[in-house]
Please model this.
Amino acid sequence: MSGVLIGFVYLFGTLFLILLGIMLNSIKIIYQYERGVKFRLGKYVGTLKPGLNFVIPLLETMRKVDMRIKTIDIPTQEVMTSDNVPVKVNGVVYFKVKDPVKATIEIQDYTYAVSQYAQTALRDVVGGVELDEVLEKREQIGEKIGKIVDVETDSWGIDIEAIRMQDIELPAEMKRAMAAQAEAERERRAIIIKSEGEKNAAENLTYAAKKLASSPAGSGIMLRTLQTVSDIAADPSEKIVILLPTQFGELSKLLTETVKGKGK
Model:
């Protein structure tokens, strides 16, 4: 009797553990950023929301889908622009799943599919524009690529948030040519600025000469001369010699007194 009892206890314990394992396996916890796509005998029957969910073992299965924004890199692509310049371009794609059912049923691996389609779109768009446009309108080109990829991936339940171009690598010969062009442009601007300064200075000197010449009896020129002499005489080591006609004796006397006064 004791052996039979032990056998029943062992059998009951085994069945209990099996049932407990089945019950635990039927409990599924879904995080807030996830959704669960449930299948019953291989057929889609519903989408499970975050929280505690139950799945019938052996009859039902569930696949979790991450709804957060994902980031994938676009590997470096060598592209020939429309003006026949080879460039190497890479980028990054930001996307998220907006329909977990389509992302599970319509496409096998949506991450790989988005990456491949983004590479193709990048080559097509960059190959259709000139080099200057690639360098100056990177954001606009990225937006154009994003729209192309978004239209295609919409049927997969994928929403493209943005596509950004990162690095643009040019041939060494093109870099040298662009550097020479930039240097020539800077020199051109410097010459223009210098010539404009000389033009303004000439105009100001002409205006000043006219004003001095228009003063009565040349008094303006005399005052300017005296001011120049006064500025030079401020340094005791400087000596000034002024030659004037004899008829300007009064002016000569005035200049001499001014120089002596400054020398003291």
